[in-house]
Amino acid sequence: MGKLAKTMITSLVVLLLAGGGTLIAVLYMTDDPTEGSAQSIDTVLEHSYETPEITTDLKNGSFVRIQFQVVTDSDKAREEAEKREFQLKNILIKELAKMDEEKFKSGLSDLEDAVQLKLNEVMTEGSITDVYTTSKILQ
User: Fold this and answer.
1) What are the tens digits of pLDDT across the range 73-83?
2) Kind plus residue range of the DSSP H or E element containing 6
3) How many angstroms separate the CA atoms of 82 and 94, rounded?
4) Considering only CA atoms, which of 127, 108, 103 is closest in space to residue 67?
5) Longest pairwise C-alpha distance within the chain
6) What's the average model confidence in pLDDT over 63-76?
């Protein structure tokens, strides 16, 4: 092999090693260590809002009293969610008016998902990350 070929192969190996080392360093050093981990309970409580109890009727005439814990992604979002309480009540009244007793008993997760989705449609200062039912009474 000639001197030029040895120099080119050596340069190519050095560039490949440097590029691989840089790629590994970038991948491992830029990973967020908290990525994929759940929020601490203190953060959840700090960013959550407990709704007042809401009483309304179901499709079949039964009455329900229900209360939620709305978890947001920031303090500003929590403040906005509190101000949008009237919209939350409106969403609940409309969603519950479509449900009968059986669907209400078995579909609380669907109701929580619907409330989260519809509240997020009107939010401007962040988002709702979870909605938990904290109290329910069916009469």
Assistant:
1) 999 999 999 99
2) helix 3-29
3) 19
4) 108
5) 93
6) 92
The answer to whether the pTM exceeds 0.85 is no
User: DSSP label at 2?
Assistant: -
Q: How far apart are CA 131 and CA 115, in angstroms?
A: 7
Token digits of residue 6: 């040895």
Report the alpha-carbon distance of residue 1 to residue 5 in Å, rounded: 6
One-letter amino acid at 108 equals L
In the 8-state DSSP scheme, what is residue 60?
A: T
Q: What is the pLDDT of residue 9?
A: 87
Instruction: Quote the CA–CA distance of 62 and 118 in Å, as a whole number.
Output: 24
State what percent of residues in the chain have pLDDT above 90. 37
Tokens of 1: 């092999």
Contact 54, 66 (CB under 8 A): yes
CA dist., res. 115 & res. 91, Å (int):
7
Render pLDDT for 98-119 as a digit per residue (tens, 0 to 9): 988 888 888 889 989 999 999 9
Q: Which two tokens stand for residue 54?
A: 């809401």
| CB environment 126-135: b (16+ within 10 A), e (fewer) | bebbbbeeee
At residue 134, the 3 state secondary structure works out as strand
